[in-house]
Amino acid sequence: MLKSDVGMAKVIIGIVGMPGAGKGVVREVARQHGFPVVVMGDEVRAEAKRRNIEPTPENLGRLMLEIRAEEGLEAIARRCIPKIKMHDASIIVVDGLRSLHEVKEFRKEFPNFKIVAIHASPKTRFRRLLARGRSDDPKDWETFYMRDQRELSVGIGEVIALADYMIVNEGSIDCLKREFEKILEKVMKDE
Amino acid sequence: MLKSDVGMAKVIIGIVGMPGAGKGVVREVARQHGFPVVVMGDEVRAEAKRRNIEPTPENLGRLMLEIRAEEGLEAIARRCIPKIKMHDASIIVVDGLRSLHEVKEFRKEFPNFKIVAIHASPKTRFRRLLARGRSDDPKDWETFYMRDQRELSVGIGEVIALADYMIVNEGSIDCLKREFEKILEKVMKDE
Predict the structure, then answer these.
(1) Coil vs helix vs strand at B45
(2) Which residues contact A191 (CB under 8 A, 6 or more apart)?
(3) Distance between A102 CA and the closest CA of chain B, angstroms
(4) Helix pair B57-71, B40-50: axis angle to 10 deg
(5) Is B157 in Cβ contact with A158 (below 8 Å)?
(6) How many Å apart are CA A148 and CA A169, to the nearest integer?
(7) Each residue of A107-129: pLDDT tens digit?
(8) β-strand A165-168 against B11-17: which pairing, if any?
């Protein structure tokens, strides 16, 4: 099978969600089902390593903007495409969509590209991030608000608005898992 | 009771959704339950009448951008505030949010302002708009796509991303009605 045919046949699921919406759980479910997961943020971390930059949240955020300024708004997506092509699974999950430029870039290569958005209210997401307490998670509403604004400024809201599937994640982790599994089934049937 | 106290007590539900997502059904449900509905687009139509402009979709679209350029990005919201204050219902629905500037303007006046987003996939919305066939509805994918882009350019995606409640409307009208009624109940309990 030619590379281009592989591209046609593959279903790529692009995950988008605001901080604390539940992307991590969805990544885990995909892996449990044996589907490869390509994390867009890993490209920024790899570039930080190449440039000998310490991978603090601030540095990574700045580097992400630098890469976009140097190579175009779809730069991170373009770097992920060879990784996606390496996998020959029927479904490949790409985590961390942030703009429609990226979606466009992926769809040029993979026509069967579906956007899956995970949504939770700001109140719920804030509560979750406080509970999670990862070093880069906000400790107060002001920091949380600013991080949301940074994500929105890149264009994440537009990707959410045009999602092919929307999961509302206001309940338990098990609910979210089941919802995502339903979408995996739908996506497989569609193709 | 002072005007400002009334503002504090009222719950305002701001509706946001891409074209064809199901905002019309939600407006209808709100009215059936006796809640007043303020339609933001009516402000643009009223202004068109004042300026003797024929209310074609193109003219209204252009006028909306003109009003925003002349009076600021929150202009339409500001014009709705006196109308909202006129009503003394416990819940008032405002339909047609398009940007976070508007949300900010409403929240200054009404702290209990909740964003309710209605989402459907582009495929579903396109099919619905074709079936509806209103004079200003798109007849082909290209026109549909351009209309989506126009909405997104004003900032509607950011409002959807920060919704307090998200309704996924991929099923029947009855499903959507029930989902919105559940949210009305939640909103009433919260306050």
Answers:
(1) helix
(2) A11, A112
(3) 16
(4) 90
(5) yes
(6) 17
(7) 999 999 999 999 999 999 999 99
(8) unpaired
